[in-house]
Fold these 2 entries.
Entry 1:
Amino acid sequence: MTRAMVLGLEAVLADGTVISSMNKMIKNNSGYDLKQLFIGTEGTLGIVCKCVLQLQPKLSDTQTAIVGLKSYDQVVELLNLLKSDLAQGLTAFELMWHDYYHKILQLLPDLRNPIDTTEPFYLLLEYRSNDQTNGKELFESTLARHMETGLIENAAIAQNGRDAEAFWNIREGVSELLQIYAIRSNQDVSMPIASIGEFASELENDLMLSFPNIEIFLFGHIGDSNIHIIASNKSEDDCAKITKLIMQKVQQYEGSISAEHGIGILKKAYLDYSRTEAEIQLMKTLKSALDPKNILNPGRVF
Amino acid sequence: MTRAMVLGLEAVLADGTVISSMNKMIKNNSGYDLKQLFIGTEGTLGIVCKCVLQLQPKLSDTQTAIVGLKSYDQVVELLNLLKSDLAQGLTAFELMWHDYYHKILQLLPDLRNPIDTTEPFYLLLEYRSNDQTNGKELFESTLARHMETGLIENAAIAQNGRDAEAFWNIREGVSELLQIYAIRSNQDVSMPIASIGEFASELENDLMLSFPNIEIFLFGHIGDSNIHIIASNKSEDDCAKITKLIMQKVQQYEGSISAEHGIGILKKAYLDYSRTEAEIQLMKTLKSALDPKNILNPGRVF
């Protein structure tokens, strides 16, 4: 999360006051942590002009794989095991549902499926360390162990940087997909990790019942509770209805209507699907206290 | 940092409103991140009643060492190298200055110095992973490499859990020290990691010039920018003067007068040593907006 990397910042308030909180310390408990007022508030409480980011050393060894799994529950089981096996070295856990994965392979003929079976779920995994001697061995032996127990159905490990790039191109093929389906509802939402599988199946069923010709593509940063939904139908009008149905399903699963991209204008009408009336009232209290004339990015968020 | 582990919480506002933000998602950008108002604000904006914490799997392998170094600059160089060599597996980087270390060994005769030389700086290191096969080897070979280059002067690696406990007992001997020196200034402060060494030398010099019989003990979680200072002299009156001198030195180095324990009542008079007038004014704006009758933990922080 970007928030966790921001140590300090400088922001200008609505009345022109410059709040310089350019903290460089990891630990600082001298009064309120004011930077939190400006991170993720979409410019509605102040304008961020500078920031201090905590950097991490670049690690020299990267291992990449695509693995196939039979069920979402197995995806979650594998996530928990890998967080333990690979500790903080697990740097990508990108889930692609069958229809997304094969649509990308069809759209981008230069890409091929690195595993020779068809599975309901494909997972792009990355492990980083600075231990070039043992990194590859640890990653390979870990995946082999989970294949022996039957948790992983099939796996392909990148043998070089070119393989790894080709694996990532499947995941990043989303930009091609968005060009093909210009009329669509494109949502990034989140919910507790264990619920995402059931949410996704129910959502697909509900959408297909209401919109018989709909095409639905799902992928997500599952380790971050996140799922992206691209759903295309014939008209913009359909897409507005699709968006509403997605948001209702997110509400039912106590999820967040925006995992990554904020509320802005487009999701404003749905804010109360994810936040209580008391929470929204508190946001408004903050807004009035800091920007009484409502001049900072007015009309956004609520 | 605890803040980074809190996913959600429930808090009661001054007017009795219950703000339930029991978020369970890693990524959630649906409006303002309200939990940040209540973390570290010492009960002045609301009373936290519940919280959701993100847990991490316990790792099975722990490697522990005490190493001796010749200078603070070498400590920082080693920190940067180990963050790269051991990545996120570096779970402790506890620096003990010579006088602290040897005072603890003298106070607690069951403990012994595991390295056979006397050094200006002693560092307690811990590395955790789930890789029992390679964990020990990686840790040992990493330390050996930094000894060969002369960065580390001397090192002792715990061979079993009993050794590791004995190493930690030196660091944790601080509780004994605080019992012996009941009259003292006991401060936890932070500043940019690279400045801590110079800050500490200057502070020791300044304190010894002003208080000829003073005893000063320094240790800190250097990876978190933190240094603890225990300075004892004859009277409470002396200790108040010592605290003021420490706070002035922190201000001079653009540090934080409280790394971990907050402001409360004891550090209130020094808040403006670490925060600007505009920042303190913004804290007061928040306080007035959320607690206009000033009934929540009044008199704390500012």
Note: Chain A touches chain B through 80 residues (CB under 8 Å).
Entry 2:
Amino acid sequence: MFSITEKATQKRAKLHNKRLVLKTIYDQGPISRADIARTTHLARTTVSSVVARLIEEGLVAVVGQRSLDRGKPAVLLSTVDNVRRIVGVDLGGREIQGVIADLRGAVIRRIQSPLAGLEGEAALEQLYHLIDALIAKDRESILGIGLGVPGVVDVRQGVVRQSGRLDWWDLPLKKCLEDRYNLPVHIANDSHVAAFGEYTFGNGQDVSNLVLITVGMGVSAGIVLDGRLHFGDSFGAGEIGHLTVVRGENAIRCACGNKGCLETVVNEQTLVEQAREIARRNPHSPLHHFAPSPEAIDLDAVIKAFRTGDEDLQRVIMLMGRRLGDAIAAIASILNIQRIVISGSLADLGPTFVEAMQTELTASLHPMLAAQTNIQLSRLERDIVLKGAIAVVLSAETGLV
Amino acid sequence: MFSITEKATQKRAKLHNKRLVLKTIYDQGPISRADIARTTHLARTTVSSVVARLIEEGLVAVVGQRSLDRGKPAVLLSTVDNVRRIVGVDLGGREIQGVIADLRGAVIRRIQSPLAGLEGEAALEQLYHLIDALIAKDRESILGIGLGVPGVVDVRQGVVRQSGRLDWWDLPLKKCLEDRYNLPVHIANDSHVAAFGEYTFGNGQDVSNLVLITVGMGVSAGIVLDGRLHFGDSFGAGEIGHLTVVRGENAIRCACGNKGCLETVVNEQTLVEQAREIARRNPHSPLHHFAPSPEAIDLDAVIKAFRTGDEDLQRVIMLMGRRLGDAIAAIASILNIQRIVISGSLADLGPTFVEAMQTELTASLHPMLAAQTNIQLSRLERDIVLKGAIAVVLSAETGLV
């Protein structure tokens, strides 16, 4: 706050004005220069010169005019959303997903390439190939590259500290990509990135604080506070998979060494395993309609059978929902954040799953807080990390979001 | 970020320069104008004119000179720490505590007046009398008034939303005090204020993220993130007294309506009650050395007996420490904050109490996080809310902290 000099302040004021005008056109366009001046409180001459620069850079264009009662008609301006593009990459799944999107986050092109089995150098090479192919045609228009990476990511240094899944340890990914592409690169943990995606393009656009919980192979969260991601002292914020939610005799040993962690009772594999067990025990289970044998049951079959209202599955899934509710109660007690959004493969279980969380929340959170806390399903579905990666670049490079 | 106009930016640049120079003198003084220019990267003429203004306002003074190898000696400047003063008030105890402090937070004068039994208007009148007496002699020099209030405090509106203890409901305390004293007033929840005190004057000066846990009549926390207090969506952040830490048959019903809340097993009254029970059962308990009868045992007696190493007390207190450890594990999992500081009346139990928390932390937090998490006792003791109230005013009115 106090490290800026007067000169830097003036330069920043100029940049602020440019961003302010661009953001006003982005948020409110089509809009006239006079209305921009009214909205921003900038002088009309300042608005005119900033708009001229933005038109020259191809970010803004004249899209029409509005006739006025008197005088000459007002020229209307809009942002040229698809002139500048952003690359978003999700490294958190079995495949690398990559997209090129416009300034609104709309996907223009999409590529995926297999990642399963690839680790270390080979995974990095695969990433290079994907980005090469993505940007081949649009090189000039690209504002930057954003990536969501599973594991601990040092966003300040741009280094992947540890990603067991990719076998990356202290990999300076930001530098690798910046050297190769000569473009700005932003990397962060995939759950953190997802939270920023939800905040920017999903169910977080109306709030300034939000927690996004991803429930799939494990459970993790991303926390947005005052419109900014909270990373934590060692970039490990939101590691809620290791919250203790089961105590006593029923607590199972977790991979981390402790007992009763949330991840020991809530994850995709455990759910599928329990469903297979139900199918083996009960020849009338609706699960048999969706898979040829108990061993062939996958998450898709579980979700379909759950929707038929099978009681055994209901019991298992409600219990998972309640343990998630315990974690949400802890988050809401500590942070007093009211907007909680659920994403990941288990989010496909739908509103009934959310109801179980809300039930537990009411039973274990201070009633005043429980009444204020609002659990929703993400609307970004499988693209949430990609959207987040795009949002991170948009925020850092343009200030538009 | 984008709501400022160019003019406002210039005005802010001027204010920034003034704060920047003042802070440099505050942090590094005695210091010469040349060294200020080097540190701040401001032009020397700018530094000279800002310093002239600060001397005129009585915030800075010439305190000596340093001879140089060549040329005339450099004049050394320091802040005049006791010229401007700050009022700090703590409304969270059985008495109202009020102090006047200098710019370093050093207490110059202290007043307390009884609060027990006073509620509503009467409590407010008592507060007025205390502040009247505090500022009578120093009216001109006072920068502002800071207050820590038990309950839910809307810091944006300056309204005490609910304080059961004081029977204040939607009381516009900031406006009441500003109207009466014509001075800037800042109010916040007392645990939040305490956390900012620890961050500014205590064991948080070397970190940017910190959680302060106050353990006394109840348990609550204040969270500092990136050097700023996190208040939460409805100003209820840090209400960790209602985290569920006991599940199953042993869970006791809490005043909030739920079962197994942290406050049901960790608080001053419960500890004293359990100590009395120990004394009743065991005629050889060291507790008898510190109180004439079991009914006369108070916290002071408990702490003294605990220090003698009494096993029954050890067991009770270690269990409380472990339940606090559970809460700290949840905080560290969710936020990845490494610095945890304990304050409040139970902090007087000392390092053994902290060891119990650390033991539970190791058993229930991801081992990597547990190793990084550092639990300390506050060094501000009973003055923590007062110091925090002073820090809040210092931060808001001068930017010095």
Note: Residues 311-335 of chain B form the longest helix (25 residues).
